[in-house]
Specification:
Blueprint (H helix, E strand, L loop, with lengths): L34 E3 L2 E3 L1 H21 L8 H21 L8 H16 L15 H32 L9 H45 L5 H42 L4
Antiparallel strand pairs: 1-2
Amino acid sequence: MGADVQLASEASCHLFSGCGFPAPGLGEFQFKPIFTVAGVEFTKPMLLAIICALLVVGFFWAAFAKPKLLPGKFQLVGEIGYDFVKRSIVLETIGKKGEKYVPMLVSMFFFVWIMNIMSIIPFAQFPVMSRIAYPVGLAAIVWVTYMGLTFKKHGFVGGMKNLCWPSGIPGWVMVILVPIEFFSNIFVRPFTLAVRAFANMFAGHLLIVVFSVASWYLLSPTIGALYGSVSFVVAVGLTAFELLVQFLQAYIFVMLASSYIAGALEEAH
């Protein structure tokens, strides 16, 4: 880019004005530290993650701290959310024996969902789950729970059989299948659980930013106004679609976590 070419982020930079359009990239996911403590940089995604955690804890505390037979507004909304995760995900996937894991999975669902919703909240405007550390941390919790329940219920030998030895398969196939099952259950499951949540939020946020910046860049007194309007409509449409994706990613994350727990609690083959 030549020295005489302006950046698209400048206020006067539009189509036909001689400036280039630097497409948003990884820089959209990097933030200057708000402050640094003992060499650890505290950034905007960290702040948003803490706010999301406080929102989840604060809401359910307000909803159920003093439960009433005739629920108030907070308690009613809390009961609806709790029952949704319990009945639509946990009981459908694990069954009655999954009731003891409902609090953990409800917390995880709303935490993931609210961290995703941060992408469309004014001043926040960033999905926390688009930073890989957060889905990796949550996937690690699921993986430790999955492994812990597997070996607690079946013992070491039974647990390995549960993980690697599918029932109803001819013995000669096991030579190939056992290593695949071991690698899949031990390594692939937590990896895909984390990457799925991260990749969807990363891609969705980047698309919205691209079309939002393009709406301003394409704006001009001539035909560029039409281009800019189309780009703006696309950005609004993507934002609405992202609302659905944000919910679905939280739902899928918890549904998969429930399926792993269900697998750990299955009787030995």
